[in-house]
Amino acid sequence: MKNRSNKIYKILHKKNEINVKIKKNKLSQHYKLTFDKKTLSGLVSIPRHITFNDGLTFAKENAEWLNKQFNEINPIINVINGTTILFEGEEKQVNFQFSKSPLVELKNNNLIIFDSKNNHQKVLYEWIKKNLLEKTKKIIFNFSKILEVDIKNVRLSNSFSYWGSCNSNNEISINWRLILSPSEVLEYIIAHEMCHIVEFNHSKRFWSLVDSLVIDKRTQQNWLKINGNYLYRVRLN
Predict the structure, then answer these.
(1) Which residues contact 3 (CB under 8 A, 6 or more apart)?
(2) In what order do the strands lie in the sheet with 6-13?
(3) Which CATH number fits domain 119-235: 3.10.105.10, 3.30.2010.10, 3.40.190.10, 3.30.2350.10?
(4) Which of 47, 73, 69, 74 lies closest to 58 in space, CA to CA?
(5) What is the pLDDT of residues 46-88, one digit of tens each?
(6) Residue 1 — pLDDT band, cuts 50, 70, 90?
(7) Mean of the per-residue pLDDT values for the chain?
(8) In 24-111, which residue ranges form alpha helices assigned H by DSSP?
(9) d(C-alpha 13, C-alpha 11), whole Å
(10) End-to-end CA distance of the chain
């Protein structure tokens, strides 16, 4: 059965073929264009009374913007044997090896993944999540003593739109890709989310709290601004 609320088109712009979904939304009052970094596709949300062709025309009028977003997230880095990726801010070469038991080792500039079933990507992904969760909990423990905040739960996310989040239940979510960044960047994101639990805004008091936890936050913000799309390009699952 056809979905009458959306249609998918292809736009060719400067040799790039970009998928664009045109979606009718009863809550939309205007045209809205976004880009999905996970699927490398555009999304145009339109009011119900607007035709799909008009939505496509809007997308074509913004083809240059779509093309820019597409190029910023390309090429995708699929982690295979021999791939070089960042890990904790330093370049490491991925090395798949076979063994009876799954294992990951950091040796000099190599990230060595052992597995017997050719599931090296999965082994690395699970190891990364465990490693990041341990690091995150240690950082939270140290920051909690300063802020006097009790974090109830920590989750890892696979988001393509945010690095961290928090809620009123004192729960924090951290993007797994932050393990690829320098430790100072991870600390900044954790500090940012923990300070939001105390001050749920971006007031002067909020930024003062952040400054009490991390040194030179602008350096970490700039690192993410420059390298954020690289982190999204790395695919493990």
Answers:
(1) none
(2) 6-13, 16-24, 41-46, 32-36
(3) 3.30.2010.10
(4) 47
(5) 999 999 999 999 999 999 999 999 999 999 999 999 999 999 9
(6) very low
(7) 95
(8) 52-61, 63-72
(9) 6
(10) 30
What 3-state DSSP class applies to 46?
strand
The label of the residue with tokens 């008009």 reads: 54
Query: DSSP 3-state assignment of 16?
Result: strand
Buried b (16+ CB within 10 A) or exposed e, 73-101: beeebebeeeeebbbbeeebebbbeeeee
Q: Which residues make beta-bridge pairs with 11?
A: 18
Cα–Cα distance between 136 and 36 in angstroms, integer?
27
Give the model's confidence band at 28: pLDDT under 50 very low, under 70 low, under 90 confident, else very high.
confident
The CA–CA distances, whole Å, from 92 to 12, 82, 214 equal 36, 10, 26
Query: CA 75 from chain center: how many Å?
Result: 16
Which stretch of DSSP H or E encloses residue 134?
helix 120-147
Over residues 5-33, the mean pLDDT reads 94
Tokens encoding 144: 């909690």
Listed by start position, the domains of the chain span 6-72, 119-235
Chain position carrying tokens 């423990």: 141
Residue pLDDT, tens place only, 97-155: 999 999 999 999 999 999 998 899 999 999 999 999 999 999 999 999 999 999 999 99
236: which 2 tokens?
């493990």
Cβ-contact 61, 13 below 8 angstroms = no
